[in-house]
Amino acid sequence: MASLGELERAVMDLLWASQEAVTANTMRDLLAHNTGTDDGAAAHPGKELAVTTVLTVLSRLEKKGLVERERGTRPHRYQAVSSRADHTAELMHEVLGSAPDREAVLARFIGSVTESEAATLRKLLGQS
Amino acid sequence: MASLGELERAVMDLLWASQEAVTANTMRDLLAHNTGTDDGAAAHPGKELAVTTVLTVLSRLEKKGLVERERGTRPHRYQAVSSRADHTAELMHEVLGSAPDREAVLARFIGSVTESEAATLRKLLGQS
DNA sequence: CAACATTTCTACGCTTCGTAGAAATTCCAA
DNA sequence: TTGGAATTTCTACGAAGCGTAGAAATGTTG
User: Fold this and answer.
1) What pLDDT digit, counting tens, does each position of A71-119 carry?
2) Based on the domain organization, do B27 and B39 belong to the same domain?
3) pLDDT for B126 beyond 90
4) What are A's interface residues with B at a Cβ cutoff of 8 A?
5) Which chain B residues contact residue A85 at CB under 8 A?
6) Dist. CA B70–CA A111, nearest whole Å
7) I need a surface site. Which of A6, A67, B65, B96 has the fewest CB within 10 A?
8) A52 within domain boundaries
9) For residue B30, which of B40, B20, B22, B19 has the smallest C-alpha distance?
10) How far apart are CA A114 and CA B84, in angstroms?
């Protein structure tokens, strides 16, 4: 149960972008001023969703374990459970984990990594 | 459009396991003798699906680009387009690709890789 | 308390997937 | 060649996930 819908992904992107926990209302506004495909030009308004829609999505994300909600404060505040990088790395491990031939997969994987990334990997694997 | 359903995955696993292209009927039989969770014990028969069911799934997999079909032979024959390792590596790249902070993701990623895999990676990244 | 804000419940339409019957097509044996 | 058998295509249905949001319940504040 890992994949996200389009709106769910947009919400997560915004949560990952803003360090602080946000309310459903704030999230609604953020979504309105974001086309997703962030081009430099003036993005069209990206229509205003109903707050209940945003709440539904946030609840679903909470159920999926991606979002954490502060129930204490009155307008509840939501934030991502883990950073985008952590989440993505986790996803990669999930994908890799389902394979019986992990090493073969890794071989193919690094076969198509940019040189700068390869360098990063070398550094990270360097000593040990 | 990358994720697979349960049956779709079972079919792909069998296609990946058998080098040769197989017919829908063969696939039906293979599915019948496979519980997925391959424990050593006598797996229960894994019910016989209708051939049309198998054909539907194979067609859907073909549409997704995961399966290739030989239309020449009369009982059409189906096979995986790419190896499981290739496919999985591709999936990993897909996951990684959607991240703006690729290097950060990679850092987290190799942070939780087994030592033997780390060794494999070092070897593969060795020269260059 | 009353009006307002916030959250929860319920629901509907769309898409995907498991599942397969019905219909169309193709092939082989007599 | 023709008719039954095998094969493929078409169509469909139910369940689940997601976008979407109204209605109802609940909490807040003046």
Assistant:
1) 999 899 999 999 999 999 999 999 998 677 899 999 999 998 989 889 9
2) yes
3) no
4) 3, 84-86, 88-93, 95-96, 98-99, 101-112, 115-118, 120-122, 124-125, 128
5) 99, 101, 104-105, 107-108
6) 30
7) A6
8) yes
9) B22
10) 22
